[in-house]
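Consider the following assembly input.
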Amino acid sequence: MIKLTRIDDRLVHGQVAMTWTPALGADCLLVANDKAATDEFLKMTLGLAKPASAKLLIKTLADAIIFLNDPRGQNMKILVLVNSVKDAAALAAGVSEIKSINFGGIRTREGTHSIAKALAVTDDDIAIIRDLLAKGIELEVRQVPTDNKTPIETLI
Amino acid sequence: MRKFLIATHGAFAKGIKSSLDMIIGETDNVFLIQAYLDDAISVEDELAAVLIHITADDELVIFTDLLGGSVNNIMIREALKDNVHIVSGFNLPLLIEVIMGDAGTPVTEVIETAIIDGKEQMVYVNKLITQQND
């Protein structure tokens, strides 16, 4: 089962390894990212950040959707990691189990505006966010598990 | 209640607290001593101001930067009691593990495990990468 689907542009890093993995009791980190799935160097660095208590899978978006819809994954406790709003929406469209998406960190880049601490989105992202909200998917902002959930609709 | 004190020469304590907050979120019960930054206040006095907050029912874990350093020596001299545990030569992974440690697990066990894990985090990355690529 999916314990959490998180958008974090750093994918696997300190916060994820040290706080989310134990708080969720996750035994599998699934990085769903087309670039990471084909980049050996990126795979290696993500592997260094992996907590010992969980296995790390790095798959393309398409393969991640197949994996998450496979009933054999039902007894795994999966933390799904994507690095963009667009990829999160693609996963949610392909995996009906995803009813909630956690917004972690997306750093400022060209064309973004900041809507919360460590969270910067583009106008395209906002359009995708509104679409996800219209579909009834919970979108909550939390850096770490101990933060209070902030519904994203209060920020845009 | 389990409480923590990071005691270092200079601003290291405050600096690592900022890293800690970023990674695990803001935490209560973490006291800081930045020794010798201000000549007007002694480390003993700074420590006394922390110990006021520690009752007999509390556990205090003190992290110091250097084994054999003056800060560590003062902690041993002024604070070492049954409910106080002093750990020297900390690094960030060790701090994270102890501070996030399960309150139900005995503090001695949390500390012992965190020291082992903290040491494992000290890695010559070039060698690790070479091994992975072989």
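Chain B has a mean pLDDT of 95. Ask yourself how this observation constrains the way the partners meet.
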